[in-house]
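Retro notes
What went well: the complex prediction finally ran end to end.
Inputs used:
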Amino acid sequence: MASPQQQQIMTRESVTRPAETAASKTPGAACKLTARNIDFFYGSFQALHSISLDVPSHRITAFIGPSGCGKSTFLRTMNRMNEALRNTRVEGELRLDGQDILSMDVTTVRRRVGMVFQKSNPFPKSIFDNVAYGLRVNGISRKSVVEEAVERSLQHAALWTEVKDKLHKPASALSGGQQQRLCIARALAVEPEVLLLDEPCSALDPIATRRIEELLFELKEMTTIVIVTHNMQQAARIADLTGFFLLGKLMEIDDTKKIFQNPGKKETEDYVTGRFG
Amino acid sequence: MASSSIAGSLRHRANRGVLARLRGGDEISYLVTLACAVLIFVVVALIVAKLWGNSQPAIRAFGWDFLRTSRWNPNGGKFGALPFLYGTCVTSAIALLIAVPTGVASAIFLAEMAPPKLSNLLTFLIELLAAVPSVIYGLLGIFMLLPLIRVYLVPALKSTFGFLPLFQGSFYGVSFLSAGLVLAVMVIPFIVSVSREVLLAVPTEQREAALAVGATKWETTWDIVLPYARSGIFGSIFLALARALGETMAVTMVIGNTPKITASLLSPGYSIAAVIANEFAEASGDLYVSSLIFAGLVLFGLTIVINALARILILATSQKAATA
């Protein structure tokens, strides 16, 4: 099942690669995911106010902003992970390749829009079973197919050479950075079209962080990446596009270079220059 | 200066005497907690010693035959405890067979599916059940459960599984089956309340990780949450088993108190705890009393053996899961 989708990804890559302009300014052009007027409520508290943005295909989009500004909440609305929490409500329009995410079958949304979390959360199973889990729940059980997909995912997550001789050892035996790459491999196994990462490096040392960043840079060839980060240098290093959130609002989103060197808003400038936040 | 006086008292604190150090808490808390732990061990040792000592006449008279023979004849001075051992094991097995699936399923509902308010209310009620005295469960069994079993359950069992020796023979109400069902009702609260706590303690990250690759809520519960909570759930089952093995009053009221070994669960039987409770006060003669105490020792041993086996089982399965 893997190959047609990969081919699809590859053709899309070669045909629709946009020029190096901010895709957000050219809506419709190679836009993977669009949000229009997204409001989000925890009970009666409104955490997001009318968020609208376009996530360009095969790019890394980063969300920055102070704690509690809603960047993670917004990330989690993109694969409807917030629905796992009680008493939450989302309003607005969210589209993946033009299809309405909010009315789509939720397991399909999450298969197509994968997620990696702040704290690495491998299952207490073997390395192999961790990566294979997503395939299993999506009905892929042929041994050869699963084995191939597990190997490919681990290679994409730059973990294969380190674990290929201990695939059936428990995932807990891996180091923190390896565990996080395992979680990335687990997410990649079901070939998501978008990969959401919620502060994936916040618990890692600089070397492990570096490896993940290099990895993300390579992964944007195969998927579209959205990352929430507290680390502004990280956004500056890896993101093509950066969005700045403040108090539940998207203040601005633009080319990363522009956000860091010549932001359009005073608040953004204050934040990226470290004057507050 | 203030700082030098702080430094002075810090130095003083480092050089203080035994009494002052006891006041600091570390040593005294160590001694107190150690004493409590030792006390528990001493109580267990005393129980074993007393049971062992007082059952000596019976042990000398019957030895292993006590566990292998079925004659319980106080007048003839013959005592064989096999029917009681059988009754205890069979009723506990029936109880677990019913209580484990029911209890774990309830715990899953309360922890994973029910709205928190409903879950808390139901859990409170279920925990109240654990506080009901066992004699009440016995009465409940006699006046409510037995008629229901006679009218509905037994005919149904006989018509579907009547070919099995388990469900043959006539049914008078009191039986292994009735005792097992009453025990099941009694132990379900233990399984539910402990399992629910264990399920709630499974990290949210684990659930989200499964949901994020496209698992449904039920797949997440079944594949990820339950295995994560497995050893805690097993723990709740052993708690329930220990209660079922030792339960006295409720079992005595519904098991029929007939020292017989029959394949049919519909026949009356007897259990170790029940025979001790029923006969101890009227036991005449050293051998009779000592035989009942020996039966108590056997029950104690049975509980320990089953718990040990259970622990080995947990260890084996968790290691297998970790390496598989």
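What we learned: Chain B has a mean pLDDT of 89.
What to try next: split runs per interface for comparison.
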